[in-house]
Amino acid sequence: MLRRFAAASRSGAKLVAPLGCLVSRQKHTLPDLPYDYGALEPHINAEIMQLHHSKHHATYVNNLNVAEEKYKEALAKGDVTTQVSLQPALKFNGGGHINHTIFWTNLSPNGGGEPKGELMEAIKRDFGSFANFKEKLTAVSVGVQGSGWGWLGYNKEQGRLQIAACANQDPLQGTTGLIPLLGIDVWEHAYYLQYKNVRPDYLKAIWNVINWENVSSRYATCKK
């Protein structure tokens, strides 16, 4: 499931599937983490990771399944009003599932440092330097009002990297058209138990566990 959602986010799939696709779909499931809950310490503690993954992400998955089941029933009945009314739930919970599935793979206990190869060259081309890029993505993420995400995305039409922020669980590609490469969750549930309300401290720490191999792989894939 993790691979399926990562592939969908890279390939330009829409958040809400074409109408006929919901009839024979399989239920979404919570992907396993590729590391232990405590593996990202001291930067993100085990309690946060366990709650974030097993409670928050699991809730998005469960609610997405419920919303899709209701949508399937409304579709079978030709109930357009209900189909329309379910769009916010599909967007919020589907976005939460997509975003977190990307987020877990963007992190690694062996992460940190700087990217290499084509991704680093692209960062220097589009932002001037890695330091400038890091400063801009951090500033955008700090500046998210309330809950949301900071993103590094790829603009396929323009062939360049872009930084963007999305509110709540709005998925980057479904909202902006950018292909997601690196997402930083700035909902308080991602950091409050460790960093309280000091979001900048959390953002300073998370750079130590960014999985640049994963980000680079996403960049290489979306350029094909």
From TrEMBL:
Q: Where in the cell is it found?
A: Mitochondrion matrix
A Pfam family annotated for this chain is Sod_Fe_N
Residues reported in the UniProt entry to bind Mn(2+)? 52, 100, 185, 189
InterPro entries found in the cross-reference section: Fe/Mn_Superoxide_Dismutase, Mn/Fe_SOD, Mn/Fe_SOD_BS, Mn/Fe_SOD_C, Mn/Fe_SOD_N, Mn/Fe_SOD_N_sf, SOD_C_sf
| Residues covered by the Manganese/iron superoxide dismutase C-terminal domain | 115-218
> Which segments constitute the Manganese/iron superoxide dismutase N-terminal domain?
27-108
What's the subunit arrangement here? Homotetramer.
Quote the function comment for this protein: Destroys radicals which are normally produced within the cells and which are toxic to biological systems.
Q: What is this protein called?
A: Superoxide dismutase
Organism the protein comes from: Lonchura striata (white-rumped munia)
Q: What is the lineage of its organism?
A: Eukaryota, Metazoa, Chordata, Craniata, Vertebrata
